[in-house]
């Protein structure tokens, strides 16, 4: 029998790792962001680096671009995932079914796998370009549209959607399997059509879970580095790549600035998540999920 004491003992290694590595690294980053870096004889706490960051027009423009792109990609993944979850609701009801297992595969695969697959498939020297050229539809591979490392961040968006749409479907199916259909049946008997049932009953019941997966997707998209670095445009870089470029310059006197940028990125993600949860609680169905 699993007792409370046994659970605590099993969790001790995790909490030791969490406090020794994660919390200590976070604390060091926070202290450094205030300009305290004794190795370089910087021993005075200051808000200079934070003020310098928020007053930098380039940083603010890149932050806004990253925020809008992250919101758009997360919203698109949630919208498509919701639609597919409702369409295939009956087929996905079986947790051990073939379709369910196929949808779970992209969730388990790392992003680097998707990146390598896109390079092989839709780059200008990829499989699709070669096929169209051999069929005579394109004069050369250079005529194939630029989908990777393009200013529109299409490759980054495809990668995010590849991972996040199945994640949304899997998350919503857990709710759909447990959803009481009595409300829909009553509304249908009273003459409600499918759209009215969806907007007035189904969507409010799914809303807390949908907001939660939106927050998770947004937080990853906003802070992801490897995907926009490998597939994004260097002319219109996103915020994590912008911060990393500062770090690899080798100028350690800029390390407090880099840490302040990281703290601002994390802080904004937390505040945005809190705002979305607050909005979720005020919407129809919000009392059924999220934080009480």
What is the H/E string? HEEHHHHHHHHHHH
Structural class comes to mainly alpha
Strand order of the largest sheet: 1-2
- Terminal-residue CA separation: 31 Å
Mean pLDDT: 85
What is the overall silhouette? globular
Strand percentage lies at under 5%
For the biggest sheet, the summary is: 2 strands, antiparallel
Kindly state the number of beta strands. Answer: 2
The helix fraction, in percent, is over 70%
Runs in which pLDDT lies below 50 for 5 or more consecutive residues are 288-292
Specify the number of helices.
12
Round the Cα radius of gyration to an integer and report it: 23 Å
What does this protein structure show overall?
This protein is mainly alpha-helical. 70% of the residues lie in helices and 1% in strands. The protein is built from twelve helices and two strands. Strands 1-2 form a two-stranded antiparallel sheet. A hairpin with a 4-residue loop joins β1 and β2. α4 crosses α7. The radius of gyration is 23 Å and the shape is globular. The two termini are 31 Å apart. The C terminus is likely disordered.
In short:
With 292 residues, the chain is mainly alpha-helical. It is built from twelve helices and two strands; from the N terminus they run αββααααααααααα. The protein has helices at residues 4-33, 48-54, 57-87, 98-108, 111-122, 127-134, 154-178, 182-189, 194-223, 226-231, 239-247, 255-282; strands spanning 36-37, 42-43.
């Amino acid at each position: 029998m699993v007792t409370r004491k046994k659970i605590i003992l099993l969790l001790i290694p995790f909490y030791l790792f969490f406090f020794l590595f994660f919390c200590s690294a976070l604390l060091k980053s926070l202290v450094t962001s205030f300009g305290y870096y004794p190795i370089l004889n910087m021993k005075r706490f200051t808000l200079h680096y934070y003020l310098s960051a928020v007053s930098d027009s380039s940083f603010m423009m890149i932050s806004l671009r990253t925020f809008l792109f992250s919101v758009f990609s997360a919203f698109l993944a949630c919208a498509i995932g919701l639609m597919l979850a409702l369409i295939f609701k009956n087929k996905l009801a079986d947790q051990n079914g073939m379709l369910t297992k196929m949808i779970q595969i992209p969730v388990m695969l790392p992003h680097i796998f998707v990146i390598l697959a896109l390079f092989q498939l839709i780059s200008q020297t990829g499989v699709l370009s070669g096929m169209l050229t051999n069929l005579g539809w394109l004069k050369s591979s250079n005529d194939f549209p630029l989908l990777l490392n393009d200013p529109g961040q299409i490759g980054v968006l495809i990668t995010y959607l590849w991972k996040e749409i199945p994640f949304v479907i899997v998350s919503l199916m857990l709710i759909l399997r447990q959803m009481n259909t009595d409300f829909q049946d009553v509304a249908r008997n009273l003459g409600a059509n499918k759209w009215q049932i969806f907007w007035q009953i189904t969507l409010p019941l799914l809303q807390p879970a949908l907001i939660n997966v939106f927050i998770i997707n947004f937080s990853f998209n906003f802070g992801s580095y490897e995907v926009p670095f490998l597939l994004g445009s260097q002319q219109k870089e996103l915020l994590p790549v912008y911060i990393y470029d500062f770090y690899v310059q080798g100028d350690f006197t800029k390390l407090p600035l880099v840490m302040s940028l990281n703290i601002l990125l994390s802080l904004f993600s937390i505040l945005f998540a809190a705002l979305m949860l607050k909005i979720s609680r005020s919407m129809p169905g919000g009392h059924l999920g999220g934080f009480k």
